[in-house]
Design brief:
Elements lengths: L1 E6 L6 H9 L6 H8 L7 E10 L2 E10 L9 E3 H9 L5 H22 L7 E3 H20 L4 E4 L2 E2 L1 E2 L1 E4 L2 E4 L3 H6 L5 E2 L5 E2 L3 H10 L2 E2 L6 E9 L10 E8 L9 E13 L7 H10 L4 E8 L5 E9 L4 H11 L6 E19 L2 E10 L2 E7 L1 H10 L4 H11 L1
Parallel strand pairs: 1-6, 3-14, 6-13, 7-11
Antiparallel strand pairs: 1-15, 2-3, 4-5, 8-12, 9-10, 14-15, 16-18, 16-19, 17-18, 19-20, 20-21
Length: 395
Amino acid sequence: MKTIYLDCFAGIAGDMFIGALLNLVPDKNILIDGLKNLNLDHEYNLIIENAVKNSISGINFDVKLTHEHEHEHEHRNLSDIEKIISSSSLNQRIKREALRAFNILAEAEANVHGTTPDKIHFHEVGAIDSIIDIVGAFILVDALNWPRILCSPVNVGSGTVKCAHGILPVPAPATEFLLRGIPIFSNGSPMERTTPTGALLVKILASGFGSIPPGKILASGYGIGNNNSDDVPNVLRALLIENENLNQDNNLINEKLALIECNIDDMNPQDFEPVIEKLFISGGLDVWLENIYMKKFRPGNKLCCLANPNDTKKLCKLILEHTTSQGVRVHELDRLRLKWDIEKINTSIGEINIKNAYLDNKILRRTPEYEDLKLLAVKNNMSIQEARKIINREI
């Protein structure tokens, strides 16, 4: 099992994360070509260059607006960014994670400004930076087959930071909101060491926090930041580790999860689809409906959502807001699941992501990702059953 360990001894930002992971992928064009799927490359130029910070070499990643967009002051809101991502030709998992990330970011900004996520506007410069950094991060994690990501406590810095809303204390309000529940500390000369985008990536991607896990280091990379500091260099270290000792217990992983559910008998069945989609985007691990009979034998539906405990309150609020239910039930439970990873393979009908599930240190089953399978069926003008038969034969 492979793990990426993020050593945030000097903080983390979106560009630092991408710079660090670019050291771990075999080809930097994976990022460049992947971002072209957003159809925004006329608005920006990417800078990817080797750099040195405080005698540490790494990769500096930056986004610059093209000349014709430098002085424009258009704004993009959450809906605009969702349309850009949803209409792109990125694979479904990258889309899903990017949409989830922007919803969480908009929620953080809305909390800070006392408004709602749909009213948050991203200035074009910030929007382009955010879109490239966030989507680019998921493109690189996807290229690495979605390994487990662990993180050190996060250095947030100290002092103040100048932003569009004035001079604010570090960590900035949105950063502080995103880092709730995450171990932090402050070290080094005063500066903003963790940005909202960096905090967002840690919140979404890291499954645990602590010291470097046991295993063999396969590769490492440093992402070079844009700030200067004489004491703690503005860099992010990413270690790619092979965790040999984690292949015990038949590859079974024990997790603490929450089950959210409610009974509904007065809602148009067609209205469940957008609710289920919102729950998935907002962090639901699995969402489903069960047919039930309620009092006086009225037919109804039980809406169920499996979630990480930290997402429970947010998902409960979403259900109450977007359904006719007056209340929800929350159950704490244990889940024992197989270890799995995603492998991208080439087939005679096109490229597809395959989910590998492991038991007793062996592959138990290999399953084509459904959304990829559906796209290949359309592309090759065949039924999904025929596409699945071809894929299963070739894997």
